[in-house]
Design goal:
single chain; Aldehyde Oxidoreductase, domain 4; 18 helices; 7-stranded mixed sheet; Aldehyde Oxidoreductase, domain 3; 24% strand; 26 strands
Length: 719
């Protein structure tokens, strides 16, 4: 049976974080540590003819400058892995502006920076394509997503809307910048790096440098923000590792933010054309949705914009196409709710447009379309409480007082007021997991498991489960994650962390109780588990477990151990599973400047059973803040003359600050999903952002009567 509701508790690592005691990858201090800085390419496409390093070597403190010549051809020819378009080592072929061509290693950070500025590469540039709408792009369609006969449904529709929407290129900007510290000692390579993918990093570095993965350890105990940026294999990692091996001393690189913009993956610009048709009774009858996005020349980040829209409203007839548009840029990649966020900005804006055209209240219109079947697979949905999210959100927001007509709500000073709603969905995935639970007679407990902590609260989730199942000392509970020496580490992303660790933690707890019962036998022993072990003179008891996702077999564990992808869902053998959310947004538009403010948001989520209420609510608030930034602030712009990104810093890449954010009221349906796992929990971190940007745009329309179909919405769009 699914678990009863979990209690509110503080984040397990809250005190250490507040005190500054939490150590991140770049905080590691090692004897003899050297500092590194990369030298970026100054062209968008072409070749490196030469790299003059003499000036850098004259800088006091510079120890060595690594170029492509320091990476033998056999190693440089190794496949980069994880969809990277170019070699993760310095190379002579330049695929995008900012690509590293050299690494300067020095005794101090200042010397490394000065040395990098003194390196003089010589390039032979080639013509390049900088933008998705520039001449010379290559359009590459992918397999369409279809169900039923959307063409016939739309042809017979009584009411249709058709519109195009644009989502811009955007970059992650977590406080923790990309960093790698590498140590080569006694034939072992240890890498400290903030990453969501410790085992895949190990595999990629081994492949790039021709090493046996068994001699590499990757440690990422805490990550200072990620949400996709640190899920890919970072370009600097094998370069820094090679430097440590060649020099024989630890080497640290903290990449400057401007270089992160040019080298890390990013949310690609995407274009969406949506056609919706309603029958004579006002029911949504058919959907046509065409999307494409910018792509690097060899990148593999798929345009999967049809993950969630078909699963929203029970529409049997769906026709979705998608394509890559290849240009000269670095690889795009995952950024929170990577495809559903831009997809639902377009789709939920179109739903709002159709409801308005029909003269229907947008909440009532959505409530009339409850989904129970996945039209793509034909399987039932494991659960869908989206209507409950909409109903509860409307109640908390006071939606009943909203007039349907736009432009009819205003403050005495002329400020326009608008109320908007939108909904979202995100796949409920899970992955193979391996764990070891050790309980000691000395009062200690150690749980080593697959997973990473980048602020989403997975340590707190694990603590909730273990403390609920086992009578242990919570003050001495160690949770070892993000460490390849503790357990194989999957890429923690896609909101599958909780749903994956739940079965492993519960199985480990059950096996521990069974092992202890067998050990004690008929003896009467009182006290918690530590005291019981001490009473029978057993220093510790340890169990190991491995779990796979629904529909997976042991091969998933083999992929996990090899640093590969071992994810199941959302289409499982007997059902399809998604998480859902509804966002209600109030905007205020200043009468003369047309500046948009968001004083309040209500968000209600269906993520199954909520295991850690406090960190779950934090996840939703963070997702809403990111969506407000996406809707009103964030866009990474390209200089078409030179390629690369123009606003590659936090001065010009505008993100929301405290003054931009009003009240965010978060609630959960908290009904367990009966099929996904024993607790009934589904993912939350990604879905929390989905639909919120559309709710902002819909609220702006309600306030002004102006429909803006692109992000970010700017002042000039409303003048």
């Amino acid at each position: 049976m699914p678990a009863a509701p979990f209690p509110e508790r503080e984040r397990i690592d809250a005190r250490d974080k507040v005190l500054g005691a939490t150590a991140y990858a770049a905080d590691v201090q090692l004897p003899g540590l050297l500092y590194a800085m990369t030298v970026p390419a100054a062209i968008a496409r072409g070749r490196v003819l030469a790299v003059a390093i003499e000036g850098a070597m004259r800088v006091p403190g510079v120890v060595r400058v690594l170029t492509a010549a320091d990476f033998p051809p056999l190693l440089s020819a190794a496949p980069p892995g994880n969809g990277q378009q170019a070699q993760p080592t310095p190379a002579t072929e330049i695929a995008y502006r900012g690509q590293p061509v050299a690494l300067v290693v020095a005794e101090t950070l200042e010397a490394a920076i000065e040395g990098a500025e003194a390196v003089r590469p010589t390039f032979a540039g080639q013509p390049f394509v900088p933008l998705i709408d520039s001449p010379g792009t290559t359009r590459e369609p992918v397999k369409p997503k279809k169900a039923g006969d959307a063409q016939a449904a739309l042809a017979g529709a009584a009411t249709t809307v058709e519109a195009s929407y644009v989502s811009p290129a955007q970059h992650h900007n977590p406080m923790e910048m990309l960093s790698t510290t590498a140590v080569w000692q006694d034939g072992k390579l240890i890498i400290y790096e903030g990453t969501q993918a410790a085992s895949p990093v190990r595999t990629a570095v081994a492949r790039s440098l021709g090493l046996d993965p068994a001699v590499i350890e990757v440690k990422s105990a805490y990550v200072g923000g990620a949400f996709g940026q640190k899920g890919a294999i970072q370009r600097q990692t094998p370069i820094v590792a090679r430097a440590a091996m060649l020099i024989g001393r630890p080497v640290k690189l903290v990449m400057p933010r401007a270089q992160i913009f040019h080298n890390a993956t990013f949310r690609p610009k995407s274009r969406h054309r949506v056609t919706l048709g309603a029958d004579a009774g006002g029911q949504l009858a058919g959907i046509r949705y065409d999307a494409d996005h910018q792509q690097s020349r060899k990148g593999t980040f798929a345009p999967s914009y049809h993950e969630s829209p078909p699963r929203m409203y029970g529409v049997a007839d769906y026709d979705g196409t998608a394509a890559n548009v290849r240009i000269d840029t670095q690889d795009p990649g995952y950024m929170r709710a990577p495809h559903p966020h831009p997809a639902h900005f377009a789709f939920e804006s179109a739903v709002d447009e159709l409801a308005h055209k029909l003269g229907r209240d947008p909440v009532a219109f959505r409530l009339a379309h409850h989904a129970t079947i996945d039209p793509i697979s034909g399987h039932p949905l494991s659960s869908c409480f989206l209507n409950e999210c909409l109903t509860e959100g409307a109640r908390r927001f006071g939606w009943a007082r909203r007039p349907i007509a736009p432009g009819t709500m205003a403050e005495p000073d002329g400020t326009l007021v608008g109320w908007g709603v939108a909904a979202g969905a995100y796949p409920a995935n899970m992955t193979a997991t391996i764990a070891t639970l050790r309980i000691g007679a000395d009062g200690s407990t150690r749980f080593a498991v697959t997973g990473h902590e980048f602020g989403q609260g997975i340590r707190t989730v694990i603590a909730q489960l273990l403390e609920r199942e086992l009578d242990i000392d919570p003050g001495r509970l160690e949770i070892a994650i993000g460490d390849t020496a503790a357990a194989p580490q999957h890429t923690t992303a896609g909101s599958w962390g909780t749903a994956s660790v739940v079965p492993a933690a519960l199985d480990a707890a059950a096996r521990m109780k069974a092992a202890l019962a067998e050990l004690i036998g008929q003896r009467r022993v009182s006290g918690n588990l530590h005291r019981q072990l001490a009473a029978v003179r057993r220093p510790f008891l340890q169990v190991e477990v491995s779990t796979v996702g629904l529909g997976q077999d042991a091969s998933a564990l083999d992929r996990l151990r090899a640093g590969g992808f071992a994810v199941a869902g959302p289409e499982y053998p007997q059902f399809t599973s998604f998480s859902y959310i509804a966002h209600f947004v109030e905007v205020r538009v200043e009468p003369r400047t047309r500046r948009v403010r968001v004083p309040r948001v209500v968000s209600v989520a269906d993520c199954g059973r909520v295991i850690s209420p406090r960190t779950a609510a934090s996840q939703v608030r963070g997702g809403v803040v990111m969506a407000i930034g996406s809707a009103l602030r964030e866009e990474t712009e390209v200089d078409p003359r030179f390629g690369g990104w123009l606003n590659a810093d936090l001065a010009d890449y505008v993100v929301p600050v405290n003054a931009d954010i009003g009240d965010i009221d978060v609630a959960f349906i908290d009904h367990p999903d009966p099929l996904l796992n024993a607790v009934g929990s589904k993912g939350l971190g990604e879905v929390s952002m989905v639909g919120a940007a559309a709710a902002v745009a819909n609220a702006v329309f309600h306030a002004t009567g102006t429909r803006v179909r692109k992000m970010p919405l700017r002042v000039e769009d409303l003048l």
